[in-house]
Amino acid sequence: MDAFQWDTREDCEVRQILDRIGDKWSLLVIALLDTRCMRFTELRKTIDGISQRMLTVTLRQLERDGLVKRTVHPVVPPRVDYELTPLGVTLHATIQPLVTWTETHQSEIAAARARYDASAVSS
Predict the structure, then answer these.
(1) C-alpha dihedral (50, 18, 104, 25), degrees to nearest 10
(2) What is the DSSP pairing of strand 38-39 with strand 68-73?
(3) Tens digits of per-residue pLDDT, 38-82?
(4) Whole-angstrom Cα distance, residue 113 to residue 76?
């Protein structure tokens, strides 16, 4: 695999997509929507620390990328549901092994960080 395929140029499509799915909130939204359709307020209550604006931006970007579907129901007050598209489902299936790897190795990573931090202090 050629690392240069992940070009750092701003106009590189691969880099833009990786930046989107690797940002602070997108993967969490995708993981939550994998289990069921959710309303905006449900997502906001479930995701600790996300602002209303950031959730709106994240959902719009995921919708633009074809990963999330937004459905507006014609009721008063308006009800908006979000769910993964078939493409979004494939992304979740792709990232699940990474999450599993992280869970499996988190104690090793924590130990490595502690060793590094201890040696950095003594340097």
Answers:
(1) 10
(2) unpaired
(3) 999 999 999 999 999 999 999 999 999 999 999 999 999 889 999
(4) 52
Bridge pairing between strands 79-84 and 38-39: antiparallel
- Which has the closest alpha carbon to 65: 45, 48, 90? 90
By residue count, the chain amounts to 123
CA dihedral 89, 95, 97, 99 (to 10 degrees): -120
Distance CA 100, CA 106 (A): 10
Structure tokens at 10: 């701003």
Separation of alpha carbons 38 and 45, rounded Å: 11
Dist. CA 27–CA 52, nearest whole Å: 17
- Residue 112 burial by CB count (10 A; 0-12/13-18/19+): exposed, middle or buried? exposed
Taking the C-alpha atoms of residue 80 and residue 71, their distance in angstroms, rounded to an integer, is 6
Look at the block and give the residue holding tokens 């090793």. Answer: 108
